TrEMBL record:
It comes from the Bacteria. Residues 1-24 form the signal peptide. Pfam families: FAD_oxidored. This is Pyridine nucleotide-disulfide oxidoreductase. InterPro entries: FAD/NAD-bd_sf, HdrA-like. Keywords: 4Fe-4S, Iron, Iron-sulfur, Metal-binding, Oxidoreductase, Signal. One of its GO terms (molecular function) is 4 iron, 4 sulfur cluster binding.
Amino acid sequence: MKIIFIFFLLLCSLVTVNSQSVLIETELFETKGGWSIDSQFIDQMGSPYLLAHGLGEVVEDAVTEVRFPETGVYYIWVRTKDWAPYPKGPGRFRMIIDGKELDYIFGASGDIEWKWYKAGTVQIDNLVTEIRLRDLTGFDARCDAIFFSKSAEVNLPNDVDGLRLFRQKMLKLKDFYYEGEYDFVVVGGGTAGICAAIQAARLGLKVALINNRPVLGGNSSSELRIPTDGELFRNKYPKIGSIMREIDNGFAGVCNENISMYRDNWRLKIINNEKNISLFRNMHVYAVGMSGTKIDYVDAMDINTLKTYRFSGKIFADCTGDASLGLLSGADHLYGRESKAQTGEAGAPEKSDSLTMGTSNQWYATLTDSISAFPIEEWMLQFTEDYHFELTKSVWNWETGFGNFHIVEDSELIRDHNFRAIYGNWAYLKTYLRDKYGKYKLTYLSYNAGKRESYRLVGDVLLTETDIRCKVNYPDAIVTTTWGIDLHYPDKQNSKYFPEQEFIAYAIHPNKRKEDYTFPYRCLYSRNIENLFMAGRNISVTHIALGAIRVQRTTGMMGEVVGMAAYLCMKYRCSPRQLYTDYLQELLDCVS
């Protein structure tokens, strides 16, 4: 009987907590149709969800079969949101139960927050019942979960922790499955995480590489389509950069239509060929276990099954970009711009603020044989003859953030604001410049957002603008960046037309690709979590210094150094800080 029950759990994507209620998590639907699993915002809204990203064309139904405990009348709740209530949401969808379409239209409530919406009642006549999600617009309808109850009065959670406990109880999920103990646990599978894992594995460590996406590469993957940049041949230490060269995709270009250029499969092959690496894809780390100031383990949710897995480790690396592992562990961190009084930097503002560089979504249009329409709608950002952009492909400076939105906590709002800008500008071109753009079709728009900046973890050295411009020579200087300080701020004309809703940047980078600087190892570990390294845009730098170290070839080289350092920490049973105080020369010898 238990085997049959588990079979139905996997097959029908639900379980009943009692005879009165049924929970369906939409990411577990048997057939997704044209809907996609969007898992970027789990920490903010509590779960992966299904997204109907059709670029204005209705997508195929998502379908599953549900086993109800008994027939009869059930009340229905659906967790969703109106992602662009300006004034009427575009992401509308309906639910169809055993061929009967509910009257309720979801996604047009006028409320931008994720909520449970009561959608009336339905008569369930068959114990095994088909459920469909039917997209009505092609404009990013989204659905997280569906709840059926015999009772009209239920109290459904909306907070992240409450949702997790509710889901665990309703689906009768085990607390966790133990994945074992590792020498080195790397969280984040971008260039920094890949390089850290490979370096440590080749030196003999048992490594777990945990990535919350289906593909490796982060911003440089086919999901986000940004080429690696920076320089690998002007290093102070010649051994650094060799692994990054193996995984490089520098010829891919921005938003290339040929996704093979981003080398997802090549990177996966390299990782799979490393016998000391265990790769865990689609695993989102959401909790840590601590012993004092040391991390003992991390818990990760499998996005495709919602099961939880525990990974114990001796040494950990936060390569998430958002510093999510560091924040979970209580690591000291920074966000936004530091003041001149805090850092002594010439370019710092007088007062600290929350401004960050922005987030981008890549897109392109292709030339077709026929004319197509893309009507202007109210919820889109509205462009004019005086202000619009004649583009058929994304460019680097389309980005949202800049302190108007919190780059992490408001990450879904930022992505959706980019959607409104891109859709709105494209609708203007298709409507008012039909002779030029009539035969172009919006073919690709990534729903995965690429960040430039978020939280930064504080190490024993906080790298500053002064360090870079004055070429301060630290004894543990180890990773060489060649990018120069490259910072993005809201474009003034964009601010004029869209005040506090900017989506266009300008850049300050007078020395980009011209200025070498080698920064210290002590920027690559946490000052208060004793077994935590970091590599990527979340290392110990000020906002201004981040502008020089954030490109992906540089972050990949950070990962290589962290992998070497993790090996030496295991060799000497020491902390990252003790490696600096007691074994620095050996680390430098490893990279020389």
